[in-house]
């Protein structure tokens, strides 16, 4: 019998445990993780004044901290210096190993796959392939308790990425946040992270009503072909639901967190800052009271933006271009990082393409 079982030794579980166990060192905690191998992927986040400092709070180091970003569509190419902010890219494996090392003396871990969970009035039963465990509370960052989304008009962010070694030397000080590509029914763009002179991650991303990896792979291949590359270093892919209906939910004893718990920002899929912020705010909260609340105004704006992408995918690039071109970059970053001041929101609203947003609002 444990006080707390955590399913998954992934990002949100560890961000939470690191903070929570500093104030609840007496808890008997078991982590159940299905795989010893840690997935290979990159996680990025804004950093800078007023934003939660991931290095200070979690001692994680960015592989790269970009001070310049670019956004390109067929009409315009915008390059912005974002200092004193930065766009940081972390190796997921480094993040998981670092945070796990900081909690490993306070938890037990077993490598086994959870197959079912059952909530009783006084405990939770967790079945794995090999064992059964009981606990007072369960935190799950997996899709075991899958959410059924009422709204069938939703978008998915899906992406394929390839890190390549290139033959020619390249400049590597700018993150290409979005380079929009032609598409009739999806928002489609390349996201490029140059790590050094010789290596770059090319990620082709779509916001679509359905997930069509086969088609995306073809487009991605074309994007890769524009580089003179020597070899493929690694590949990654993913799907993130983009819907304000994909909300946090919990029962009396089972708390869903992370991507499957509705932590990601609906309009962007970014999660790490939100999950870290939430973990710090809730260091002293009782497990029975733990909830994740969206900021209402941000959620409302995300909803209009998602509708615009859903009904007018061909026009979405102009929303992003206007966002980055017509606003002070500090306001944009605070907005994207979930901590906008009221005047950031007012400015951003005044500078959005009104016709598209109003049409989306009334749809
Ligand atoms: C390729 C990729 C790139 C991303 N890039 C970014 C980014 O740049 N910035 C950002 O903020 N977000 C990003 N995200 C979104 C999100 O931040 C990450 O997916 C993040 O890892 C989600 O954290 P999590 O805790 O929900 O899940 P995970 O970190 O995936 O952890 C879940 C864990 O649960 C384990 N597990 C699953 N099922 C079971 C089971 N039945 N029994 C036992 N264990 C189980 C898994 O093995 C895994 O270790 C990205 C996602 C992907 C897929």
What does this structure look like?
The chain is an alpha/beta fold and 363 residues long. It folds into three domains: 2-62 and 89-147 and 243-289, 3-Layer(bba) Sandwich (FAD/NAD(P)-binding domain); 155-240, Alpha-Beta Plaits; 296-362, no CATH class. The chain is 29% helix and 31% strand. It is built from ten helices and 17 strands. The chain has helices at residues 11-23, 54-58, 92-103, 213-225, 272-281, 296-311, 316-326, 329-336, 342-350, 354-362, and strands at 2-7, 29-33, 42-47, 64-66, 68-72, 77-81, 86-91, 108-111, 114-119, 124-128, 132-140, 155-166, 174-180, 187-194, 199-208, 229-242, 254-256. Strands 1, 2, 8, 9, 10, 11 and 17 form a seven-stranded mixed beta sheet that branches. Helix 1 (11-23) packs parallel to helix 3 (92-103) and helix 8 crosses helix 9. The radius of gyration is 21 Å and the shape is globular.
Molecules bound to protein: flavin-adenine dinucleotide
Relative strand content? 25-35%
CATH topology of the largest domain: FAD/NAD(P)-binding domain
Radius of gyration: 21 Å
CATH class categorisation of the largest domain: Alpha Beta
Number of domains: 3
**What does the overall shape look like?**
globular
Helix-strand blueprint:
Elements: E1 2-7, H1 11-23, E2 29-33, E3 42-47, H2 54-58, E4 64-66, E5 68-72, E6 77-81, E7 86-91, H3 92-103, E8 108-111, E9 114-119, E10 124-128, E11 132-140, E12 155-166, E13 174-180, E14 187-194, E15 199-208, H4 213-225, E16 229-242, E17 254-256, H5 272-281, H6 296-311, H7 316-326, H8 329-336, H9 342-350, H10 354-362
Parallel strand pairs: 1-2, 1-11, 2-8, 5-13, 11-17
Antiparallel strand pairs: 3-7, 4-7, 5-6, 9-10, 10-11, 12-15, 12-16, 13-14, 14-15
Helix pairs in contact: 1-3, 1-5, 6-10, 8-9
